[in-house]
Every structure is written in structure tokens, then in C-alpha cells.
Write a structure and sequence with these properties.
By secondary structure, the protein is α/β, with parallel strands linked by helices. It is built from 22 helices and eleven strands. The protein has helices at about 10-20, 25-40, 50-60, 65-75, 95-110, 125-135, 155-165, 185-200, 215-225, 245-255, 265-280, 295-300, 305-315, 320-335, 345-360, 370-375, 385-395, 395-405, 410-420, 425-430, 435-445, 455-465, and strands at about 5-10, 45-50, 80-85, 110-115, 140-145, 175-180, 205-210, 230-235, 475-480, 480-485, 490. An eight-stranded parallel barrel has the order 1-2-3-4-5-6-7-8, surrounded by seven helices. It has a three-stranded antiparallel sheet with strand order 9-10-11, with no helix packed on it.
Length: about 500
């Protein structure tokens, strides 16, 4: 059996899947970095432009500082950045010169691997982004084959797409990415060999979410084929659920199947213990093994989107329409050319289905997102939008307004606006984020570098007390420790 490497997705994808991307700040990440370095991970799925924006918006953490300090703490593990091509923070296509600067600064700060994912599987878009990345540094570029179920997304479709990317010198490796957890072990056994035949000697990795219980089984099936180099996993509470297979169990299962997994088990246990203690201290949910849900293979709607839609119907006293909305979602997705059901497309498709069910006529009300999608502002759809539906969607005044929207500003114009002397790292966020959020991040200064999960409840209590001027003095005592908080002074002993 082959040696299988592990790619840890806990900090980026696990956090995003289970904790809404808002579960971890810089101090919490840096605290466990030395142990993560010792595990022997093949790579660490670390950030994206979205999670960089979250760091600014929710924590006033500087993403560039976070990246540089993590690179210093984990020098032997490549840090990974996932991108949808020529986009940074916003879904709007950015100026190529702007993206050139972004990719250059990301590599300078410590990114060693880029995943380039085009939701429409447009090879030209992926290769264009990969070429810019390679011209601005020496990071590896991984092409994403984003799995979904439709009449379009066959094994042959993915193999053809992979072959086009593999012909480019700018694509170093590939992964089969199953963000919806839709890929069965049986499908892996037909898909992975065709993809591997198309990409030749370039490495192939597997990234299978556990949303309906397939993730671990699909990953094991891929490993058993002997053509996959790495399996993507989440550690402790950041695995399972809608995240990736849990690392400790995956290691045990891979070894049971006869594979070699060269990781430091003690260090992995330390990392798992830390994330567990952090989740308990911060009140964050644990990923749980999922039971199989066959209906998900049909509608492919993520739990969060499903919950939001049900709540909206409840507020309108129309909860009895829920099943009709689910059925309509399948029809809308087909009419829109089978977009992959990952953000922002599930929200877009299901919202349109909701409008169609509760409105006076189908496509009588259309969101701006759907208008932009049909106009190609998210890229070229994988298959053509139904002609009659496209005509119905675009035949309205709002469509003409959106068609005349200004495109992403030219890099030269943005430089004039913010000044040529502004630091590149600040400039990149000034150009795409609200001014007040960037100001707050810069005012906050350097992030603190230590975090102790056991101290989190006490720190939370003290913060609450500080916000209540009428609160009495308080004392916190435990064996060997006493903290007394008085208005105007505090004493610890």
C-alpha cells in the first residue's frame, strides 16, 4: 500500500464549515502552531481572501501579520491559500494588475500553495490565475476539480477539464474537491482513475466533506486506489460534521488498510486536545459523524441555507410550502445550467426557488445575484442557461441597470485614489473593504500571541463586568489562585 500524506484543513475549511469562519483569532491559531509543525502535515489549508476579511471585520486582526507569524512558527509546512481566480474579497472580477499585486504579497508573506478553483470549471480562467501566481513567486499551484452531481458533471467532464489544466506548465498538482460531501466510494473508484490518467505524473489529492456521511469512506476508497498522494482532514472538533474526516480516526483507518501515514501521533493528539479545549471554552460546536441522507444527493442544499429558508417561510406563515421550495430548487438549478452548489450559488438558487413558489409567477422576482450570474459576471456557466428562462430573467429594468454597473476599478485608478506611497498590504484591503473596518484593524495594533483555553471563561466574565459599572467587586478563587477585582484596582495572588 502507498504512503498517504495529510493536509490539515482545521484553521480554514474546518473553521469555515463548522464555526462560520469566525471561530478563531490570531492568538488562538498561533498558540498551537508549534505542535502543528511537529505533526508532519503535508500542508496546512490556512486562509483565503474571505477569511482574511473575516479577521479584519470580526477580530480587528491584521491578516498579513497573522500569515507572517504563522509562517515563522511553521517553517516546514506549506501554508495554503484558496482562490477563485481573479477575485479578492469581493466576488466581482478584479483588475489583473490588482490580483498580480495580491498574489505577490501573499507569497512574500508566506503562502506556499495556492488552490485555484473556478466554480464554472473554465480552464482558461484557472490557467490565467495560475500564470500570474507563478510569475509573482515560486508557490505550488493546485487545480481544483470541484465535484457535484448533475447530468453535466460526468467522469468524462472532469477528466477533460483536468487534461486541459495538466497541459499547462503553471499547474503543479490537482485535487478532487467535494465541498457538498456528495461523492460516494463507488463514484471515487470510477472518477479518480480517469482524472489520474488525464493528469499523468502530477500529484492528486482528495478533499471530501462529511456532510451526509460519505467523506471518510470516499477518502479511504481513494487512498486504496493507490493513485492519491494526500487526504485532507480536520483535527478533533474541527473534523466530521460538514467539515472533512477527523484526522486521528482517518490515520487509524488508513493504517488499518495497510497504508503508511508518517505523522507524529503524540503531536497530533496535542493538537486535537487543544482544539477540543478551545471549543469547550468558547462554546463552539464539535463536528459529529453524520448519518446518510439520500435526499441531499437530489437537492444538494447545505444545512445552513436550508435552515435560513425554513425560517423565512415560518416568518411569512408559509412553512407548508417548504417541500415545494425544495422541489423547485432542483428545477431552478437545472434551468440555470447546473451551477455547483457551493457559496454563493446555493443561496442564489434556493432564494430564486423561494421567489418562484411564493410569488405570482416563476421568475417574476429575481435577485441581483441571479441577474449577475445569468449575465456572466460570476464567470461562464458550465452549461448554457435555458434560453427561455434567460430571456425572462433579463427582460426587466434592473437587468439593464446591472449591465451598466461599473466594473472593478483599474489598478492605476485605485493607486491614484489611495496614494502611490500607501503600503501594498494596506492598499489591498483599502481597495475592497469598508474604510472603518480597516481603520479599526490598524488601530488595534499587533495581535497578542498567547491564548489559554482554560482562562477564556474568566476573561469573558471580566470583560462583562468591565462593561457594567454597577457590578459589585468580585473574587475568583481556586486552589493556588485568587483573583480579586475591585472597582479601580485588581489583585491576583
Amino acid at each position: 500500500m502507498a504512503e498517504i500524506k495529510l493536509v490539515d484543513v482545521s484553521i480554514r475549511d474546518g473553521n469555515q464549515s463548522l464555526w462560520g469562519a469566525t471561530g478563531l483569532n490570531t492568538a488562538q491559531i498561533l498558540q498551537i502552531a508549534p505542535a502543528m509543525e511537529r505533526v508532519g502535515f503535508h500542508a496546512c489549508d490556512f486562509t483565503s481572501s474571505t477569511t482574511m476579511a473575516v479577521a479584519i471585520r470580526y477580530f480587528q486582526n491584521n491578516p498579513w501579520e497573522r500569515l507572517k507569524r504563522m509562517r515563522g512558527a511553521m517553517p516546514s509546512v506549506p501554508l495554503q491559500f484558496i482562490t477563485t481566480g481573479l477575485r479578492f474579497v469581493a466576488w466581482q472580477l478584479a483588475d489583473p494588475d490588482f490580483m498580480r499585486l495580491a498574489y505577490r504579497r501573499l507569497q512574500m508573506a508566506g503562502i506556499g500553495r495556492f488552490i485555484v478553483l473556478d466554480p464554472m470549471h473554465d480552464p482558461d480562467s484557472v490557467i490565467e490565475a495560475a500564470k500570474i501566481i507563478k510569475e509573482e513567486g515560486d508557490a505550488d499551484v493546485m487545480g481544483a476539480l470541484t465535484f457535484t452531481l448533475s447530468e453535466v458533471h460526468t467522469d468524462e467532464f472532469y477528466a477533460s477539464f483536468a487534461a486541459k489544466l495538466a497541459a499547462s506548465e503553471h499547474i503543479d498538482l490537482f485535487y478532487i474537491k467535494d465541498p457538498g460531501g456528495l461523492m460516494s466510494p463507488e463514484r471515487v473508484r470510477t472518477l479518480a482513475p480517469k482524472v489520474k490518467a488525464a493528469i499523468g505524473n502530477k500529484p492528486l489529492e482528495i478533499h471530501a466533506h462529511c456532510t451526509i456521511g460519505y467523506g471518510a469512506l470516499a477518502s479511504l476508497a481513494a487512498a486504496d486506489l493507490g493513485i492519491v498522494d494526500a487526504v485532507h482532514v480536520g483535527v478533533g472538533p474541527l473534523g466530521d460534521g460538514s467539515s472533512l474526516p477527523e484526522a486521528t480516526r482517518m490515520v487509524a483507518n488508513l493504517r488499518e488498510a495497510g497504508h503508511e501515514v508518517a505523522v507524529n501521533d503524540a503531536a497530533l493528539a496535542e493538537v486535537s486536545s487543544y482544539w477540543t479545549r478551545l471549543a469547550i471554552a468558547e462554546g463552539l460546536p464539535f463536528g459529529q459523524p453524520q448519518t446518510f441522507d439520500a435526499s441531499f444527493l437530489r437537492h444538494q442544499i447545505a444545512g445552513g441555507v436550508m435552515t435560513t429558508t425554513r425560517r423565512q417561510l415560518q416568518e411569512l406563515n408559509l412553512e407548508h410550502k417548504f417541500d415545494a421550495v425544495i422541489e423547485e430548487t432542483e428545477r431552478v438549478r437545472s434551468e440555470l445550467g447546473h451551477p455547483i452548489m457551493v457559496t454563493p450559488f446555493p443561496q442564489m438558487v434556493m432564494s430564486q426557488a423561494l421567489f418562484n413558489v411564493i410569488g405570482e409567477r416563476r421568475y417574476g422576482q429575481v435577485s441581483d445575484q441571479v441577474l449577475r450570474y445569468v449575465m456572466g459576471k460570476f464567470g461562464r456557466p458550465t452549461s448554457a442557461v435555458d434560453e427561455a428562462i434567460q430571456e425572462t430573467i433579463l427582460d426587466r429594468p434592473r437587468a439593464r441597470e446591472i449591465a451598466n454597473e461599473p466594473s472593478f476599478p483599474a489598478y492605476s485608478d485605485l493607486r491614484k485614489k489611495f496614494g502611490h506611497k500607501m503600503d501594498d498590504e494596506e492598499f489591498l484591503f483599502r481597495a475592497v473593504m469598508p474604510e472603518e473596518q480597516v481603520n479599526a484593524m490598524l488601530a488595534a495594533g499587533r495581535s497578542r500571541g498567547t491564548y489559554t483555553p482554560e482562562a477564556a471563561p474568566i476573561m469573558s466574565l471580566l470583560k462583562q463586568l468591565a462593561e457594567r459599572p454597577d457590578a459589585p467587586d468580585i473574587a475568583v478563587e481556586r486552589p493556588g489562585f485568587r483573583l480579586a477585582l475591585h472597582r479601580g484596582a485588581s489583585h491576583a495572588g
